[in-house]
Amino acid sequence: MNFELTDEQRSLQVLCRDFARKEIVPNRDEWNANKRFPIEVFRKMAELGLMGLLVPEEYGGTGVGAVAYVAAMEEIAKADQSVASTWNAHLTIGSMPLLYFGTPEQKRRWLVPLARGERLGAFGLTEPDAGSDARGIRTTARPDDDGWIIDGTKLFTSNAGTEMSQGVILLAVSGARPDGVKEYSAFMVPRGTPGFRLGRNLNKIGWDATDTRELIFEGCRVPADHLIGTAGVGLRQFMHALAIGRISVAALSLGLAQGCLEVALDYAQQRKQFGQTISRFQAIQFKLADMATAVENARLLTYKAAWLYDQGADYAKEAAMAKLYASDTAMSAASEAVQIHGGYGYTDEYVVSRFFRDAKILQIGEGTNEIQRLVIARHLGC
Ligand SMILES: Cc1cc2nc3c(=O)[nH]c(=O)nc-3n(C[C@H](O)[C@H](O)[C@H](O)COP(=O)(O)OP(=O)(O)OC[C@H]3O[C@@H](n4cnc5c(N)ncnc54)[C@H](O)[C@@H]3O)c2cc1C
To answer: How far is the centre of ligand 1, averaged over its atoms, from the C-alpha of 179 (Å)?
Structure first.
């Protein structure tokens, strides 16, 4: 594996770093404090061609590959987790099911506007009674003439309720085999479909400027051509889409951990106690050394998974490892960064307090870290 980014990959990284510095960092406090979804940022990202990084050019994207995507994500995630997590859900789980399983017509109709950044993508798997246990979902889709009627409630869906949201790609129970085993299918449900309404936007401890909602489906009819992929195998399709999502959450975590390291190091070199900067104390040096080592490990695992993806090789185990390790690193780096800032780190005057609140979900979303361990163990043959 070559760890050097190509010139193209580096240009994308620099573009994202500059964008974050100019457009995100100066405004992030306002968005987060007011819990305001910054639609203008995504419009600008669309102008820069950043909303379809994993989608080939023929469908409106730039198809830069996963390694370039990780490099880009680290830059945005270091600046603001609300923007980065919205971008993450859009680029991976919100778009990839259409790329992987959509018909050419479905790609033209729904993937192209997503990849161009005219619309925002969303993925609805989780429900009030089914999170880790995806097979336990209760939303149903029953055949009706040449369409399907969807009933149920999705919870914690990212990106479905903004002005630029396209709708949601959801999973529903669509029947049962003769032996009683449930079958699942995936559907695109566009905004404005009768019977589909937005529920409450959840108040969270972090990711303050993101849209995370309940979605309600009551007798919601979609035509047959809204079925994504093959009827009956939707669960397998969703699991496949989640694997690239895990590389993305690893990159989101990597950015947060790197951001914590940078601000904590800077603070330690400024803050004086006992007549010297606190960076002179070995206790603080060891924290920074441990953070830097873990960040580097997280980076290697994340790039390895992304590299495998780009090679067309199996990457599911490495994606789970990267997500597990990088998100744990993000949480511990955020905690240590607050510790290094002392009482100031507990106030909203320093970005580390927000990193600390944002970090926790990284260990929960896209499959909790307990579930990542189960995935890894399964790959080991357990
Ligand atoms: C901000 C945010 C955004 C989200 N965005 C989306 C989205 O866009 N789309 C979407 O579909 N979902 C989304 N989610 C949902 C997220 O993926 C789920 O919260 C997550 O999968 C866990 O499900 P749960 O919350 O129901 O927890 P549970 O599944 O109820 O888990 C509770 C605890 O039990 C543990 N546990 C469960 N089963 C096992 C087991 N077999 N072995 C060991 N431990 C176990 C879990 O690890 C966890 O610690 C989002 C959530 C949040 C908070």
So the answer is: 29
Pairing of the two strands 212-223 and 147-158: antiparallel
Q: What dihedral do alpha carbons 238, 128, 317, 245 form, nearest 10°?
A: 60
pLDDT at 338: 98
3-state secondary structure of 211: coil
Task: Count other C-beta atoms under 10 Å from residue 62's C-beta.
Answer: 20
Pocket lining: 89 vs ligand 1, CB cutoff 6 Å: yes
Pocket lining: 238 vs ligand 1, CB cutoff 6 Å:
no
pLDDT at 3: 79
Q: From 213, 229, 246, select the one nearest 171 (Cα to Cα).
A: 229
364 CB under 6 A from ligand 1? yes
Please tell me the distance between residue 257's alpha carbon and the centre of ligand 1 in angstroms.
Answer: 22
77: left (phi over 0), alpha (psi -120 to 50) or beta: alpha
> In the prediction, which pLDDT does 278 show?
98
* 241-283 pLDDT per residue, tens: 999 999 999 999 999 999 999 999 999 999 999 999 999 999 9
Q: Which atom of ligand 1 is nearest to the CA of 160?
A: 8
Unique residue bearing structure tokens 């919100």: 94
Residue type, 254: L
User: Per the structure block, which two tokens stand in for 277?
Assistant: 């900067």
Q: Determine the pLDDT at residue 2.
A: 77
179 Cβ contact list (under 8 Å, min separation 6) = none
The pLDDT assigned to 246 comes to 97
The span from the first CA to the last CA of the chain, in angstroms, equals 28
Going from the C-alpha of 247 to that of each of 241, 290, 324, 328, the distances in angstroms are 11, 23, 10, 14
d(CA 108, CA 58): 9
- Regions of the chain with pLDDT less than 70: 1
d(CA 102, CA 83): 27
Catalytic residue list contains 118: no
Q: What is the pLDDT of residue 248?
A: 97
- Tally the C-alpha atoms within 13 A of residue 57's C-alpha that lie toward its C-beta: 1
